[in-house]
């Protein structure tokens, strides 16, 4: 059993909006050398080039693309809508390798998300023995590239970790995945205590990063995961940032 989704992030996104509006209202013009008030300069938009949560949601793979019997999980869908979230602080310190076992595993990098996000969870009911989760996060500037670098670093730091529920050692292996987005990295989790392993895929398109998990199928979830990831990457290419 994996950890639940972060649906509460959507509520946080809405709560952050009044603060952003308040800060914008506090800006004012300054007086020039002739004593006349000059028009306030428009500050650079830190979210320029970043897709909104609404756009990221549109890029997620639909239920029709999932394997037979793998259906939406009722509480596994959330997004940040049209508003951007303040970027979360990065957790410093040693990599917590057990976070590879999370349903939404982006926090293995020390970040809990971007300034926008969308996610969905599909599983075979009722026992959820096969699962496909997909999360898209939008990041400012070059943070998306840094996230991909941190994913690779986490694999290097965690050749194994312990599954506390099965009380078993999990092997972690990773490899570059060319041809998927601007860059992509695929991770395979296996354990002698599991009937099937897990495939994790991190793929970047511009400022957006997909972190996907698949346990569907008898191949550690690899084929189903690759199919969903390819669809998401293609969909991201069609989205144009609204921020400027």
Q: Can you characterise this structure?
A:
A hairpin with a 2-residue loop joins strand 8 and strand 9 (208-214). The protein is built from 4 helices and 9 strands, in the order H-H-E-E-E-E-H-E-E-E-E-E-H. Residues 1-32 have low confidence and may be disordered. The relative contact order is 0.18. The protein is of the alpha+beta class and 244 residues long. Strands 1, 2, 3, 4, 5, 6, 7, 8 and 9 form a 9-stranded antiparallel beta sheet that branches. It is globular, with a radius of gyration of 20 Å.
Rg to the nearest angstrom?
Answer: 20 Å
Distance between the termini: 41 Å
**Number of helical segments?**
4
Sheet/helix structural class: alpha+beta
Mean pLDDT: 87
What characterizes the major β-sheet? 9 strands, antiparallel
Counted beta strands: 9
Residues in helix, %: 10-25%
Looking at how many chains there are and whether they match, the oligomeric state comes to single chain
Shape: globular
Which residue ranges are poorly predicted, with pLDDT under 50 across at least 5 consecutive positions?
Answer: 1-32
The secondary-structure element order is HHEEEEHEEEEEH
Q: Beta-strand percentage?
A: 15-25%
């Amino acid at each position: 059993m994996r950890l639940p989704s972060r649906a509460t992030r959507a509520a946080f996104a809405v709560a952050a909006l009044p603060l952003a509006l308040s800060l914008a209202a506090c800006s004012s013009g300054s007086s020039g050398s002739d004593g006349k008030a000059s028009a306030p300069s428009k500050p650079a938009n830190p979210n320029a080039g970043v897709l909104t949560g609404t756009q990221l949601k549109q890029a997620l793979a639909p239920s029709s693309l999932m394997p037979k019997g793998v259906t939406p999980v009722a509480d596994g869908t959330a997004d940040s809508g049209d508003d951007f979230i303040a970027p979360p602080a990065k957790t410093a310190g040693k990599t917590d390798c057990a976070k590879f076992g999370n349903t939404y595993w982006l926090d293995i990098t020390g970040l809990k998300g971007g300034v926008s996000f969308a996610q969905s969870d599909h599983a075979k009911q009722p026992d959820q023995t096969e699962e496909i989760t997909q999360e898209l996060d939008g990041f400012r500037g070059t943070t998306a590239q840094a996230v991909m670098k941190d994913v690779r670093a986490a694999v290097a730091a965690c050749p194994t970790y312990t599954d506390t529920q099965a009380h078993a050692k999990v092997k972690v292996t990773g490899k570059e995945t060319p041809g998927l987005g601007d860059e992509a990295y695929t991770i395979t989790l296996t354990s002698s205590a599991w009937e099937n392993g897990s495939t994790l895929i991190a793929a970047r398109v511009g400022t957006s990063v997909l972190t996907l998990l698949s346990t569907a199928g008898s191949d550690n979830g690899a084929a189903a995961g690759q199919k969903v990831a390819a669809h998401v990457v293609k969909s991201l290419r069609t989205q144009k940032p609204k921020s400027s």
